[in-house]
Design goal:
This protein is of the alpha/beta class. Helices cover about 40% and strands about 25% of the residues. Helix 1 links the parallel strand 1 and strand 2.
């Protein structure tokens, strides 16, 4: 089964909303939550990572980097892995694919994941999932979107808007 990860925006502006979004993602069934560490390290990353460790219990917590990972990022990933009870994940970009492994940055036994868009509606979401399942990916990372919680919870539901037909006659 294809695992789903969500990549959070690069900078949070409201901590309360960030905690609510992360909690909702975990409750909706996301398998992992990611921060994109491709840019220059910022102090905010470490606050965000600490918050992720503190408010989640089940999801994998990861950093996505473009090789080579800095010593600072490797230390952050090691700390996440230790503090979260082994839920730390690291990923290197390799073209459009991610090589993902638990703990330190991926070595030889990494899984292949893809990055993609969630799509404009549930039908598009199901097509994205089917495409990556068929291609043999272990997981899919999508960028944060307010719709992603609903897509995770209700991916099999049809977009039924008969209520609009009834209300307009």
């Amino acid at each position: 089964m294809l695992r789903i990860g969500v990549k959070l925006p690069p900078l949070i502006t409201q901590l309360g909303e960030f905690v609510a979004d992360v909690s909702a993602l975990e409750a909706a069934g996301a398998d992992s939550i990611w921060l994109d560490a491709a840019a220059e390290p910022r102090v905010e990353w470490f606050i965000e990572l600490g918050t992720l460790v503190a408010v989640t219990r089940r999801v994998g917590l990861g950093l996505i980097a473009s090789p080579p990972a800095s010593d600072e990022l490797t230390a952050a990933l090691d700390a996440i892995h230790a503090l979260s009870g082994g839920r730390g994940l690291g990923a290197h970009r390799s073209g459009s694919m991610l090589q993902v492994a638990a703990g330190r940055w991926p070595a030889g036994d990494a899984e292949s994941w893809a990055e993609d868009e969630a799509g404009k509606d549930r039908a598009a979401w199901r097509q994205v999932l089917q495409h990556h399942s068929i291609s043999g990916r272990a997981g899919l990372v999508v960028a944060w979107d307010p719709r992603i919680v609903d897509l995770l919870r209700n991916s099999d539901a049809e977009d039924d808007r008969s209520d609009l037909l009834i209300s307009t006659g």
